[in-house]
Amino acid sequence: MFRTLTTRTSTSLSRSTFPRAQRILAPVVPLLNLTRTMATEKQKTLTEAIKEDHEEMYEYYDLYQKAHGNADAQERWARQLIWEVARHAVGEEIVVYPLMEQYMGADGVKQADHDREEHQGVKEMLSQLESLTPASTNYSELLKKVMDHLKHHNNDEEVKDLPVLEPLLGEERSRAAAKEFTRTKMFVPTRAHPSLPNRPPAETLAGFLVTPIDKLKDAFAKFPTEEMKNAA
């Protein structure tokens, strides 16, 4: 996963494109890199795909901390981290939590609702970050709070949720779910490739965080599948 960090950050939005409140966005993931990432996901289980996302969050945060003293670098890593967190949360809400409800019975419904509540808390903190200056003391303190919250949430998923869900899915359904989960990486702020939708469901992080999940599901359904991309 760390092997993709350099290519993922090779392109960034112009600092003058949006006002600061809208600039907490990740660099656009190059389409070639995205395609390669999806190709490797074909062999992953849902658990492996989610754990890899979790590790990416921690790596981006570590790079943010290591860039202390370099405001520009910290802002760029913050954009990357925050967009990854937001996209990951929505990916779980679209793909993973419905599976928990479907296969884990009443306990799955209860746990999915709990996880959604925790995601809402993270989304609210991410929205608060938009009003702060990246690399400032207040920003770093709130970002640490986000990561502390996420580590607890992620650990619960890895220790409690996924070990129960994975055997209920079976290997074939798990790998299919991992592919669907990875497709949510198409939720990026800017799309220049003609094979992708002309308009994203939200063009800024602020818009993305408040977009109803049903609307995001509808937009996600219109993204090309792996089969379509391979046949193109």
UniProtKB/TrEMBL annotation:
It holds the Pfam family Hemerythrin. Residues 46-164 form the Hemerythrin-like domain. Gene3D superfamilies: nmb1532 protein domain like. It comes from the Eukaryota. This is Hemerythrin-like domain-containing protein.
